Amino acid sequence: MSQFPPNTEREHEVADAEADVAEAEAAVEADLSQLTQLEGERAELVDTLRRVQADFENYRKRMLREQTALTERASESIVEQLLPVLDNFELALLSLDEADEKVRKGVELAYADFLAVLERAGLQRIPTNGEPFDPEVHEAVAHEAGDGHPTVVETMREGYLLKGRVLRPAMVKVAG
């Protein structure tokens, strides 16, 4: 038999059970507190990850824009340096009136190929003769009397656009 009377033993069992319950509740409280803390840390890490991803995406887009701009500037520089060669080809074609037909044909083919390469790179000739004068694309170097509406009447030097931007304005004579 037990050394405690039945009621006292029962009271000890209840007290032990209550102590176990209190201990379990304290453990649950501690676990809940730790869970809340971990959820907060997780939310903070997820927020940090999203910011890092957004920063990286912005960096990637900026680098792509800068690389594209750098490539365009390099292309523009090269094409701009080739414009005097294009001008010289045109002068050569004008001076070949009495040249051998084979020489003339060879220069014309070389000129056409050269011009085609530049056009594929985005080069376009600025329209001039008969066009209304546009100071954005035309550089007036001579003027003569006209009807009051400035119009290009003669081209002194061809002008070019590269991908829609003025690379070299056309030098023109204007009537108006």
Q: Can you walk through the features of this model?
A:
The chain has 176 residues and is α+β, with helices and mostly antiparallel strands. It has a domain at 124-176: Nucleotide Exchange Factor Grpe, Chain A, domain 2. It is built from 2 helices and 6 strands, in the order ααββββββ. The protein has a 3-stranded antiparallel beta sheet. A 3-stranded mixed beta sheet has the order 2-6-3, with no helix packed on it. A hairpin with a 2-residue loop joins strand 4 (160-162) and strand 5 (165-168). It is rod-shaped.
Topology:
Elements: H1 6-94, H2 101-120, E1 123-125, E2 138-144, E3 151-157, E4 160-162, E5 165-168, E6 170-175
Parallel strand pairs: 2-6
Antiparallel strand pairs: 1-4, 3-6, 4-5
Helix pairs in contact: 1-2
